[in-house]
Amino acid sequence: MRNAWIVCRRELGSYFTSPVAWLLVTMYSLIFGYFFWVYLGHFVLQSMELQMMGEMAPTNINEEIIRPLLANASFIGIFFIPLISMRLFAEEKRNGTIELLTTSPIRDMEVIVGKWFAATILYCWLIFYSGISFCFLFIYGHPDWKPLAVAYVGIVLQGAALLALGTFISTLTRNQIIAGAGTFAACLLLWVFSWVSSFNPAGWAQVLAYLSIITHFESFGRGVLSSKDCIYYASVIFVGLFFTARSLESMRWRS
Amino acid sequence: MITVHDLTKKYARTTAVDHISFSVSKGQIVGFLGPNGAGKTTTMRMLTCFFPPSAGEATVAGFDVLTQPLEARRHIGYLPETPPLYLEMETADYLRFVGQLKGLSGAELNRRVDYVCDRCAVGEVKTKLLGKLSKGYRQRVGLAQAIIHNPDVLILDEPTAGLDPRQIIETRELIRSLAGEHTIVLSTHILPEVEQTCEQVIIINKGKLVATDSVQNLQARFRGVESVLIDIAARTGAFSVPAIQERLEKVTGVGRVTCRDQQANSAVFEIESDRGRLVRGDLARLVVESGWDLNELRPAAMSLEEIYLQLTSAESAAPPAAAAPEANA
Known about the structure:
The structure holds 2 protein chains of 2 kinds. Chain A is an all-alpha fold.
């Protein structure tokens, strides 16, 4: 795994020496900051109205702000994941540097894991900036931190799973835009698969709904760390990386 | 160091490399020659384990490229046609990264990075971004990354392509200087390059091996006869070209004599003689005894270019690769 770490470090280096990482984090903070501001404003207005009506029932920050915001954070992630993963292999193929990696004494899987892990770290770094907004809630209020932590685990797992798919799609082409568009389509479809089960009770619709990313995020959002959903994400990661390895191998046999 | 036996690579419809066999011994520089699309890069990619062969086998430093690719790769330094550079990295960082990929670490890694920077003359651009380097520097960084782990075998795919004449000369010198420590296979479609840098030539065309031999043997083989150029001058007296020509033709072993160049009182003749007959001494004696000046006497080698064109243009006339050297030896 030393080799995977070497690849990962180089990958992170290239994210951060180019403007890519900084641009992504700026955009992510901007979008998430806007969401936070809207939810907070709404919450403040609502609690003032409730007070004026004489209701003294305390409003719940976790339920009113944190939960919907985290659901949004996971959704915003879908737009950023293709931007992170699209270059992983497509760029190497275009620049010819893939020849360096595939002729070095290093296993394909080490390259793949290194790259995927670097992408996941960058994603975590984006997510970290959403945490800054939540700090204000802790300064001025007393929200429960445990569901928040669980939800972050969910967001990271979901990101890691989608990034594994993105890594796979990136090996299919030498064009970054195609890789990005393909990944975005895959992410969005996985997101909306759950809608099928709402009008169709058939077995295949249930399977489709199970495959949907969003049905597995729900419990994390509620602060429930369920093994079923962890296994789902782990298996998506495994399948994604497995297909990446097969795709690289087939590239060797084809090209 | 490298043995290749019946190596074949088939793409969907075409056969890029068709049953080629050759071997390279330790410390040699071998030129891999052929027109564009002959299968040079494909062969090199199979040797470097970039992709596996469709049939046949190849071993590098004793390791089979198909069954022991990781071990084989450890002994290979490879410079692809376009140097595999990460343009957003600095030269030294890049070389460190490649060194780590090849299994170096710690003090050894630092030592090797300094050494290859020095060797390939890229020391002054150590902290520059690779994307900002000129083509010549990029090529040298490419060479530096190929030798960073001190591999037994160096495989260079068109190392001088796209360089200016001075850079080409520098790169060739660099490659020649590496020959002692490494076994080098370099591909090119530029003939003088092979004549100047290589000891051994492998010529392929349309995926088939056309010839494999040393540069001198190849040249001799296509002569059939040996020919020398002789430059004769007369200080005094009459200088008649036909008369001299007639005298030269009488020397035993001399076949055809042709006048190549004629000045007021000097002339250059090309003299063809049967192979293996030592006519040069007789020629020299004749010239001196006749009272002429012998300005120059040298073998007229056939340029590799002519051989190459003969080999690669007339497929049917091409001699069978393996049998030919013995037949003419």
